[in-house]
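Page 47, continued from p. 46.
Same chain as before, 459 aa.
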Amino acid sequence: MSFNRLEAFIFEKMAETQLAGVGAAIVRGGEVVWSRGFGLRDVAHGLPATPNTLYGIASLTKSFTSAAILQLAEQGKLSLDDPVEKFIPEFSLRPGGESVRLWHFLSHTSGIPALAYMEALLDHITGNRTAWLPISGASDLLTFFSGAEDWTVGKPGTAYHYLNEGFALCGLVIERVSGQSYPDYIRDHILRPLGMTRSAFDRAAIEADPDAAVPYLHTSDGERLPSTYAYGLIPADGGLISCAAELIRYVAMHLGDGTLDGVQILKPESLAEMYRPRAQTMWRNTDYGQPVYGLGMGSVPNFLGRRLIQHGGNVGTATSHLAFVPGEGVGIVVMTNGSGYAMQNLAHYGLAEALGEDPEALPFVKRERQMKALEGVYETFRGTMRVEVRFDGGMVSLTETTRYNVNTARAVLDSVDDQGGTFLLHDGPATLPITFRRDGERVEMVYERYLLRKVGKLP
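Result:
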């Protein structure tokens, strides 16, 4: 099967958003039917990306952590309903006066909101901020939790709050129950049995690999800065580094009811527990239905009429996404050495093509095409005012540059179609609609008192 449309779409989005390299693969019916590398794993040295290029998979690591907990549950060494303090007595937070159980951490329903420890670590390591958190492992993280008692937001199991810290502590549970370090456990019980021999957590292994991507930090002014990963600091919640050629084997295991090439990683009933919805996420997705979260895996109910299991990851210097449709035996992984365009969108586009559907009919693709047609330079009558219109996701920015000032207004998408669209600018209690109209080659914008016409492309 040809994936020419997917390849063209990936190339287009990489060019638009300055992504250096992308690795991707698709599995169907237990066979890898497509894999490719795009762009460069190392820009300075002109080294091409391949399907075997290693990238940080970021929060996709959480599904490996969940798989490890489920394996230990299968062995009778723990229960998903066990309170965390059974294994970590030092953990003393009791949201709403109740114990946090393992499944609460795995489903982000502990009652503890994100405390942003990972964000602070990543920003410091990449030089994005100077603030420093002296966290080198679980003991420091437990100290970090001290004093957070009045930061809880509800009883465990009642609401979804994405919590990296919870998965970090689940990594400690794995270590104390198994007697192995978290990276060693994942290597011995998941990676090696799946033939993922190059996937690793440690700096030495990655830097010695001849096909590892340079992680890049993308700045707001378009610079691409060589950077690094948080080696050793966020293993259970975001530290695994892998490649498309290996990560697709992990997806194939999921599609094979927990077994790949005769090796069982998880029992089918454990996978069912992983996918079973435990909470609605805070995102509202009218395209595919309300997203829900299980144990280290999320899902949406109506991707082209099918249930879609998925998870994404982002550590700034690398982003990734895996998604699969169990009912069709089709899955995809996409990863890159930077950030700028949603890997989820690339994954969904590829899945649509693999399912025999028209990927250009996906709602997000149509919106992007429609908004792209509105982007450009606009002027009032006789060029008395000049505004640059740019779109970023569901936002539009209107920028007027004069000799002394740069004035920018940002508005939120209300609706868009082939005839134009409306965006809403909120200013205190007031809301101003910004309206676009398309009539053949003419594109107009009504912005407050002004009528502007599109006169050219963005510089």
